[in-house]
Write a structure and sequence with these properties.
Two copies of one chain form a homodimer. Chain A is an alpha/beta fold. Helices cover 41% and strands 17% of the residues of chain A. Chain A has twelve helices and twelve strands. Chain A has a six-stranded parallel β-sheet with strand order 2-1-3-4-5-11, with helices on both faces. A six-stranded mixed β-sheet of chain A has the order 7-6-8-9-10-12, sandwiched between helices. In chain A, strand 6, helix 9 and strand 7 form a beta-alpha-beta unit. The first copy, chain A, binds a DNA duplex through helix 2 and helix 4.
Amino acid sequence: MPSSISMPAPPDRVTVVTIARQAGVASSTVSRALNGDTRISAATRARIAAIALELGYKPDALARTLSGGRSGLVGLVLGPVENPFYVAMLQEVVAQAARRGIRLLVLHLGAGAVEDETMEAVLQYRVDGCLVTSAQLSSRIADMCGSHGVPVVMLNRTTRLRASSVSCDNLEGATEITQFLLHEGHRRFALVGTDTSSSTALEREQGFTRALASAGLEAVRFSGGTSSWMGGYVAGEGIAALPPAERPHAVFAVSDIMALGVIDALRQNGLRVPQDVSVVGFDDIAEAARPTYALTTMSQPLVPMVRRGLDMLLARMEDPALPDEVTLLRGTLAVRGSTQARVVA
Amino acid sequence: MPSSISMPAPPDRVTVVTIARQAGVASSTVSRALNGDTRISAATRARIAAIALELGYKPDALARTLSGGRSGLVGLVLGPVENPFYVAMLQEVVAQAARRGIRLLVLHLGAGAVEDETMEAVLQYRVDGCLVTSAQLSSRIADMCGSHGVPVVMLNRTTRLRASSVSCDNLEGATEITQFLLHEGHRRFALVGTDTSSSTALEREQGFTRALASAGLEAVRFSGGTSSWMGGYVAGEGIAALPPAERPHAVFAVSDIMALGVIDALRQNGLRVPQDVSVVGFDDIAEAARPTYALTTMSQPLVPMVRRGLDMLLARMEDPALPDEVTLLRGTLAVRGSTQARVVA
DNA sequence: TTGAAAGCGGTACCAG
DNA sequence: CTGGTACCGCTTTCAA
């Protein structure tokens, strides 16, 4: 039966055999030549390369993997994208992975639990390694990867699990930004945190609280639930509802997205930022730089974090015996318009 | 050499052969049994299933694919995530794909061009189909997929390419929201568009312009560059700079994210929304519902769109001969606080 | 320097 | 109903 007009026959796959026949050599020779094996004469190598190019040969990644090689696949477990920080992270991971010839297999995205079938994909597709950001139940992924010799690197998340990690020095960062607030003359503080206890949020709270304690101060704590705009907004309403005498000079939110919610809530309730209340966050998401927010925040070194994370992962894909490693990177303070020095009354 | 303490030997892979030996049958029988082939006696099937379960057998997706089956992989090409709409889409795609047992291979993300190596991944990993959202150069992906018999479905993007698509009825939606504005008494309009000509933006502009034309009206056009908050902000500043006599009653932005930028710019310049100017968008991203914006917009039926898109893709993965198909879904008007009826002067 | 052949883990065809 | 076997595309000994 002749093929229909609208469906040009998908061209037959060009394989090592196709090339071997064309070149009049064995398929094994083709394989070696294309992989730059120096035992093959430069002449034959060149000839085979030429034919491969001409025929548009694309090695089958699956077959290659099956016969014992790497899959080139890295599993990706991504946190709640309601927080733009995770979106930025995703973007950076995708960009850098592409540059390194790594393919990303989406294993999970969002706040929910990682499903079982998802976990199985790690084995079924012979994923070489996993990149995990946040996710409450990431420990399950780490466990199963660990027991199957699949290296795992956590981004923006410290852990005691068998896995390596790269994250911002949250404790130090929170300390630094708190000291900045103290230096600016603020003496009454509010802390905006979450109900869920992610390592990230906890460390930041600690840094803040300790820095205050060193100055003999305490903060009132507000929680809006999750690390989201709405979470911050709810907390912000609570702060705005305080009697003027108890109103904080400055608010520290454990994430930028919450800080933005806080700012909106304060303004919605007639308070000015920074004139009445200074607000700071942590992350430095793109929205923080908008003129309407101009959020003072601790900027996470996103690009280096991802680079370091991929380096660590690739190294462990090469040599699975490498010991776990924890890297902390320092953030940098980004001072913008959401804070202002407090004139002593 | 004994294995080290920290590295428990990765357990040997459980294959059909492992099970076959355990059960005292041929591997082909195992394969059939596990695939529910009714020719195998219910008894043997049960027995094999039990052994498989006990041994924790996970069929190797790669081997299965190599021997002629589907890979279960769908390539994902995602648009600029600066626009939260694409993030929401990603989230929905991931969720629904997981539910259907489809694995997503990230091919691209962002505004940039799709790289060559990325395109090759489609063939190298034997991707069963591709899901494409936006992306200027998505045509290249579509081309190469088309010529290799890999079905493509475009989401939120109409096209004349060989590919199917699902999108919101942008023309109709823009018309409807414009008529709403007219009905509310607005007579002077501004249009906020982009420099890049995505089909989506163009159709929305058309719907708006035509609806106005039907009423004998015209709009001043502003462009802030890209479909982003900043793009909207820049356009908004232009609008705010107009002399009061020329100030529009209502602004139609081709996307929510731009509309938010417009609102912020107007307010930053002392104009009130909706009292001085009404603003509408298109998409209904989560941010639009924030009390601080309360954006009136055309809500895209995201969940049904994705469902329909996956349906179409799966159908074509089963039967590649299916003809291309274009589906338009109607959006629904979400009236919120960023618009207000204009009292006739 | 190159060829032949044996897998990798499944599926499917052909027998029996 | 079930077993044997070839094959998917590539890598990798083992020979020559």
